[in-house]
Amino acid sequence: MKCIALQHLAFEDLGLFAEVLANAGYEIDYRQAGVFPVTSDECRGAELVVVLGGPIAAYDTAAYPWLHDELAGLRERLALQRPTLGLCLGAQLMASALGARVYPCASKEIGWVPVELNEAGKASCLAPLDGVPVLHWHGDTFDVPPGGDLLARTAPTPHQAFSHGRNALALQFHPEADPARIESWLIGHACELVQAGIDIPALRAQSAAQESTSRAAAAAVLSTWLGQLQ
Fold this sequence. Notes:
alpha/beta
């Protein structure tokens, strides 16, 4: 089985999800968006597509014209109900492909905070995250698309996750982020962190404190979702 992991930033990879996918029998094929694009046939045919995070916006099509092709491929794949997982920017791209609005938040949300699961969320693959801090790192948000089910929220971001049928899951937060590799994020997003007034040593310490909890929660969430795919 092939999993195409579409990257928008080299260090924002599958992280904690990689081992789960390998153990489930997936061969991971990383593609760098805008450099090594996914063809229409590949997008339709892969058993799983994971669209990863990045610092650009889903609506930045004028600056990054290749986003049009990425959105078109996602639109086609989602219409076929092929298994698709979106993380942060990936979730925003899925929302846009499904006809929902993506737009800036009132303020950036960066740091480790639990998401609040609604009843649908508690009955979903996200149940292992109940009360567990997860990494947030975003300045945009999305509306829940037509046919989607809202699963989670935080106070700053009312729309944190949605499902669209059994085979599509979009998460605004980063359950895949490996706390043991947070230094890459701290370096790569240095300008954003300074501009947002984030205490970098405090974020590093928070990340270290979440290592074992994050690993267990990430494995539980992804394993459960993979097990329900049709």
